[in-house]
Specification:
By secondary structure, the protein is an alpha+beta fold. The chain has one domain. The protein is built from six helices and nine strands, in the order βαββαβαββαβαββα. It has a seven-stranded antiparallel beta sheet. A hairpin with a 5-residue loop joins strand 5 and strand 6. The longest helix has 17 residues. The protein starts with a strand and ends in a 16-residue tail after the last helix.
Length: 202
């Protein structure tokens, strides 16, 4: 599964801020010491140590160790104006099955890639971060969705969920994804809720 975050200003100091936001949400996370939001060296799997505070999930409460989790992360440049021009070109040629939904026109004839609130933030973004995770490790959905929402919230970015075709501000993504995580984890039988024990950083 994938998640796209349109963002900007990816600097190493973001890591501690993201970790603090996780703590605010009753989770302790620690990124691999080498992870710095370095586009050349950090692509691929990003390992993360995770621990939930007691009472957040019966599955994590019964797992007496720190959890090894993470996601694959990829970076690319993003340019709103280029995307907008490409969208208009494809709309004119009736080829509209692209990353974004069909451009919408309001009563005042304004055209948007998505909608006014989303486009306002997209215009200021210059990076697209893609997260990919697998279903075998049940913690990867939790860490991926919350990381994406927190990153967007801290950088005034936008989250795009290609599975649902939905766009969110960081704040709305946090609310939506918390519910989705709860529903997902509650749907899994305890014997199938596999977690990996954190041993040490390699």
């Amino acid at each position: 599964m994938d998640l796209n975050i349109y963002t900007k200003n990816l600097t190493p100091d973001l890591i501690s801020r993201i970790e603090k936001e996780f703590e605010t949400n009753s989770m302790q996370v620690e990124f691999h010491p080498d992870f710095k939001f370095d586009e050349e060296n950090d692509e691929g799997f990003c390992p993360i140590k995770l621990k939930l505070k007691n009472g957040q999930s019966k599955y994590y409460d019964s797992f007496k160790y720190d959890v090894l989790t993470g996601f694959e992360i990829y970076f690319e440049d993003y340019n709103y104006q280029e995307e907008f021009k490409e969208k208009e070109k494809k709309n004119r040629s009736s080829f509209i099955k692209n990353l974004f939904k069909s451009a919408k026109k309001t009563n005042d004839s304004e055209t948007y890639l998505v909608e006014k609130e989303i486009d306002k933030k997209l215009k200021n973004c210059d990076k697209k971060v893609t997260l990919n995770w697998q279903s075998q490790n049940k913690s990867e959905l939790r860490i991926s969705l919350l990381f994406g929402a927190i990153l967007a919230n801290l950088t005034e970015g936008i989250v795009y969920d290609p599975q649902e075709g939905s766009y969110f501000t960081g704040e709305k993504a946090l609310l939506n994804f918390k519910n989705r995580i709860r529903e997902y984890e509650d749907s899994i039988a305890q014997e199938d809720f596999l977690l990996h024990k954190f041993e040490q950083w390699n």
